[in-house]
């Protein structure tokens, strides 16, 4: 067999994380590699009741096709319960349901990016987004971050320098992978720049509701008066990923473009999944559930950072994330985190080497640590083993 | 707001069917427009039990992320129960789960088609596929059909004439929209031509298991010795569409390319949906369920064709489909089916005008009728009203 694939296929390689996840499914591995939520926190009992009710009350509807935009009551609930508290004044017509926010990412590049166009993103940025965008053959321009997120002065310079920019991609809260959060002034400024340069901002917000401390910051879209900011949300981290429910929140005109793309892509997201999510949020308070997640993750973050302090050699920089799932480790420039990971795997510990989070490559002295998915004793033990590996370098 | 979209966006327009479906959701409309299965046949009670069991026995797994390829037991069951009886000797490694077969269609064009490449398809062809392909800017070459499906001599001529062909798309069983079925010899010949010209065949098979009479024909892939034929399957018509479970069945090397694309597109299909489908097929016999669907649809087909004979004016050609969901009506060349549909809508009956099923346009004297979704009395009444509309033209 000799098949010719389209040129775009050569742009894409397997996601390092998804491949690593296969390795780390062995139960003896202590994995800080994935971005998996803690399964013991899933509201299993409640969801079991809800599945039952939806099947009982409206099984025929739940098993049938529905509209591409998504199940209307769910879109209303998302607008009301999830987006309004983030400062976005919207209704169901601003919302289209996606299969997790990954689908929203891919659709965004499909809608806005021709081959050779520039996507501006944080440096580092989420590798799942980078991979989704790459199939459309963009150039990436990486904007450095400091402790307050993407440096907007550098963003403005890039917008001037690259008029072929078609999209700005940012994760303002507890960024993946860096764990950093963009401050209020920069959020306002990015909304202004989007209007000024007439360029869409894809605001990826999977972790914003998982804030452990400090004040919740409004979404970038809340400062957008013209409709250039598109926010992607998801229940994967605040509820459960197995239902595959995310959403696009944008100006209704833009939402209609996403609907066109989704029609061709997969017609619609699962009907029963959408009805179950809606019913859950009608009968229970998702915020109470999120509070429980926050309690557990905060403890795990604290324990991980404490253990790092205790077991890592000196001279290693680590982010202090105010929420979310990840911290980000910076090694001395001459140390290759891929090698560190290979050695850690021999000790049955896994991390994600940071190279893939830089779309233009060239930086290998970082790795990402996830603290949401491992129990407290495994966090301590894993960091201890990782410290021993690192001590050989320091 | 003035946003610049990517060039590919201008290739796509809203699906006429999905837009029509919104209209036809009014309960007083007799709709022959959609391709919806009969909801009264969904195995609701059994599925309610299965959802319950899956949540009870493995809720944490069902709500968590899973692999991009899909839930392994489901892939095994699909290979064993659905593909082997169609003559395809395969295992789980030949199967990747998709969100309905629509996602498989879109992924296929993404994998194989550059802008300006040729896709060869039947004339007419499924408009959801045409729309999914269009975003990649192909040229379509339409191959005429007779009562035995795509005319393979014409296919071969096209393959010689268009060396830039990158994909052959066909629906061999009870084709959408024509209702026609490709005979055995042609299936063999298409597999040979694929190898000879080294061009993938996308064999779309959503209806193959819904045969009312006559002998089941093996899939085109069953005659493929080299791996050029990719078969798309789905549970949307034989089980229920609301779970959004379809699959790609192909050579494992090709499946891995689809996996790469799915990683970027949406990571994976819903975990619980896949586990529920697998469990259902472990505990119940899907073939028994399909037999029930066949009984009902066969009656509805017979009734629709009888009513057409009774109420339509003479001189209108109608396909006799041996299975599936649709029949296809050919009007006199000077009659525009869009006008007929507008007049029918005034009488509260909806059909799909056939123009959109011809990717290069130009043929407006056809419409598609669906008989799976309306009750018997509505079929008779709807065809009667449609006949009255048509009588004005004859």
From TrEMBL, chains A, B:
Signal peptide bounds: none
Protein's UniProt keywords contain Nucleotidyltransferase: no
Origin: domain of life: Bacteria
Keywords for this protein: Aminotransferase, Pyridoxal phosphate, Transferase
InterPro entries per the UniProt record, alphabetical: Aminotransferase_I/II_large, Class-I_PLP-dep_aminotransf, PyrdxlP-dep_Trfase, PyrdxlP-dep_Trfase_major, PyrdxlP-dep_Trfase_small
Name of one Pfam family that matches: Aminotran_1_2
EC number: 2.6.1.39
GO molecular function: 2-aminoadipate transaminase activity; pyridoxal phosphate binding
Gene3D superfamilies: Aspartate Aminotransferase, domain 1 (3.90.1150.10), Type I PLP-dependent aspartate aminotransferase-like (Major domain) (3.40.640.10)
Family: Belongs to the class-I pyridoxal-phosphate-dependent aminotransferase family.
Protein name (database record): 2-aminoadipate transaminase
Protein's organism: Clostridium tepidiprofundi DSM 19306
